[in-house]
Write a sequence for this structure.
């Protein structure tokens, strides 16, 4: 069958598209139809099934902050996924409590998604509530003042602009909070 | 069948790949010239951006107070600039040169081709403005704002029409393997590019990420791989003046690539928030990628049998065959990374840029540089300005490239081990990589010298040809 595709351009085109579309459709269109958790927002009231909580829509301020996160390319160096690796749950954890792993239902309202591919800096999937506003203000002015050895660029124009700064911090404080995973509820504002 | 295969090789040598001196004069090549010269220029300009972001890892305060020169703004410019400013238009330029020759006819429309080249330059210049200004859609490889995306689609359709119409009017019935890969690139990109740039708009979260990775993976796998292999299949036999080893092997390689590549997008989210069964499918197909890769590489190596001595002084061939070796290596890494145990170490580390640069620089850019060095003197009907300088280009790229790849692999692997030991604070794993990033920067300097010598050599060749024509032309003013 394929032996003749090098003589007939039309036969070639059809075969090349059929080959492409088998895998193309089965891996993009079909999975969200099969796995409903991709589109159902997280909600759990039963502590025996893991952390409780509810995923809520972003507020207008948080969306503004998210747009800054996208625009400044924070996502090139910070992932937002606590993977199914023991070390990830420890590193995303806080004060001796391990973080729950990230699940698709926590990201239903995210567009563009910010899962990321590279960790030049630490993962941020559970960073919400770990540091207060003053910490973030100092950190954006010059990360090395708080973390010597950091290679993160300074962002003085954000730290010095209350509108941008408030929005960005409001967004950062939401990260990973759909799952209420801190037993003492000791989140920073 | 073996007889037919044998005849195939003969045909390949006699017609498309063999010397057809008479036919060559029918080609204008204006489109190819415009595409190649502009892409080589962008290679140089974006090379400066590349060096800048590599320097920022070593000196994080560098240009730190200027918003549009921060890492987060320049990295997308580096990636998009190299992919869509240098590599893709270089491959398009080579396709505009190769396809008419393999069809034995002129390019269908040189005017349409020139318009495509102009439009492409508009797109690249638009990106050079938009990305530092912060117009970033937020998806990797798909950062460009929507108006530019629309222009890319228009340019792609113009390219596709021109190539398909040329193939439709071809004189040789048999299509050489380079033609299949070029046609397939046009077809697949028509679906892959809008998936990553437009379809993602209608989805969120994991579903969107799945489309995004399908695009990211296939931008490399179904755009740069097939167009790059099309060029390798043309230039390896051409530059070594040796017929391709096997037509049948090239068919197996092509059709297995067509079937297998598209399934693997989810391997970018191994261990991540995406269904385990989809990860497993992606892993299985990633391992199957070894079939098309090894088939293609065997075909190239077998073609070179008895011809390896040519590597001593044949510069295009040096680039081509080292590109093939890098292709073999990078496509061995890929399937291995997708295995869960290996992925747990290397994923998200600096190993990954080492891997990605070996594919796009070490392999596909090497093919494109080789093709450019091969066709530019022929298109301008002159000799290359300096073979010695071209040899320097090769060694700058080779040593700089190896320095870059190898240090990032070692550093990335080490980083991965450290991350898997949660008792090591994260910042210590950052500090540990500083020597690696310093070596990467200086390797980058070497690669940049490679780009600079490449640009100079190509421009000097073009300028020389202009002076030659001036000298040989009848003296009108005298």
């Amino acid at each position: 069958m394929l032996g003749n595709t090098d003589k007939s351009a039309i036969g070639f085109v059809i075969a090349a598209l059929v080959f492409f579309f088998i895998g193309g459709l089965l891996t993009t269109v079909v999975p969200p139809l099969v796995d409903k958790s991709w589109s159902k927002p997280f909600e759990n009231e039963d502590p025996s099934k893991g952390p409780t909580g509810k995923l809520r829509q972003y507020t207008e301020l948080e969306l503004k902050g998210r747009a800054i996160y996208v625009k400044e390319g924070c996502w090139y160096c910070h992932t937002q996924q606590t993977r199914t690796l023991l070390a990830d749950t420890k590193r995303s954890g806080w004060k001796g409590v391990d973080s729950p792993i990230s699940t698709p239902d926590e990201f239903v309202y995210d567009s563009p998604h910010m899962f990321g591919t590279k960790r030049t800096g630490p993962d941020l999937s559970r960073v919400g509530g770990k540091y207060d506003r003053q910490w973030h203000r100092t950190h954006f002015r010059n990360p090395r003042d708080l973390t010597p050895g950091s290679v993160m660029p300074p962002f003085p124009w954000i730290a010095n602009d209350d509108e941008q700064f408030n929005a960005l911090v409001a967004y950062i404080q939401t990260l990973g909070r759909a799952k209420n995973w801190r037993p003492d509820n000791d989140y920073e504002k | 069948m073996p007889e037919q295969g044998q005849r195939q090789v003969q045909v390949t040598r006699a017609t498309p790949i063999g010397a057809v001196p008479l036919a060559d004069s029918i080609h204008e090549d204006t489109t190819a010239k415009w595409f190649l010269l502009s892409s080589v220029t962008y290679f140089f300009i974006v090379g400066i951006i590349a060096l800048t972001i590599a320097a920022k890892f070593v000196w994080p305060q560098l240009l730190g107070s200027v918003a549009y020169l921060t890492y987060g703004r320049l990295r997308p410019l580096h990636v998009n600039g190299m992919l869509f400013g240098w590599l893709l238009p270089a491959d398009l330029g080579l396709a505009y040169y190769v396809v008419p020759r393999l069809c034995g006819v002129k390019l269908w429309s040189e005017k349409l081709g020139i318009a495509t080249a102009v439009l492409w330059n508009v797109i690249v210049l638009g990106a050079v403005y938009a990305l530092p200004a912060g117009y970033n859609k937020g998806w990797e490889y798909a950062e460009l704002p929507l108006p530019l995306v629309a222009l890319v689609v228009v340019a792609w359709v113009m390219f596709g029409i021109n190539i398909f119409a040329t193939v439709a009017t071809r004189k040789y019935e048999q299509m050489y393997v380079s033609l299949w890969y070029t046609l397939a690139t046009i077809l697949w990109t028509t679906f892959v590019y809008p998936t990553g740039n437009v379809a993602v708009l209608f989805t969120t979260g994991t579903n969107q990420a799945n489309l995004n990775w399908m695009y990211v993976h296939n931008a490399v796998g179904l755009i740069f791989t097939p167009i790059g292999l099309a060029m390798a299949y043309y230039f390896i036999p051409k530059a070594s003046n040796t017929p391709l080893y096997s037509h049948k092997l090239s068919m197996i390689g092509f059709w297995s690539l067509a079937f297998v590549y598209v399934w693997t997008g989810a391997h970018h989210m191994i261990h991540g928030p995406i269904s385990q069964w989809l990860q497993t499918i992606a892993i299985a197909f990633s391992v199957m990628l070894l079939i098309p890769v090894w088939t293609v590489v065997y075909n190239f190596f077998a073609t070179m049998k008895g011809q390896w001595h040519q590597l001593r002084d044949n510069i295009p061939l040096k680039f081509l065959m080292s590109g093939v070796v890098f292709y073999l290596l990078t496509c061995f890494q890929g399937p291995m990374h997708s295995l869960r145990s290996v992925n747990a170490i290397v994923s998200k580390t600096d190993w990954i840029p080492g891997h990605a640069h070996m594919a796009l620089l070490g392999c596909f850019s090497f093919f494109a540089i080789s093709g450019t060095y091969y066709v530019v003197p022929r298109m301008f009907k002159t000799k290359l300005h300096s073979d010695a300088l071209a040899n320097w280009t090769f060694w700058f790229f080779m040593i700089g490239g190896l320095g870059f790849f190898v240090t990032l692999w070692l550093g990335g692997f080490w980083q991965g081990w450290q991350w898997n030991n949660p008792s090591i604070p994260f910042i210590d794993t950052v500090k540990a990589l500083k020597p690696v990033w310093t070596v990467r920067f200086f390797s980058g300097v070497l690669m940049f010298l490679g780009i600079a010598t490449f640009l100079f050599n190509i421009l000097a060749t073009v300028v020389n040809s202009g002076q030659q024509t001036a000298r040989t032309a009848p003296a009108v003013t005298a």
Residues 232 and 367 of chain B are 6 Å apart (CA to CA). Residues 1-22 of chain B have pLDDT under 50 and may be disordered. The radius of gyration of chain B is 22 Å. Residues 26-463 of chain B form a domain with the Cytochrome C Oxidase; Chain A fold (CATH 1.20.210.10).
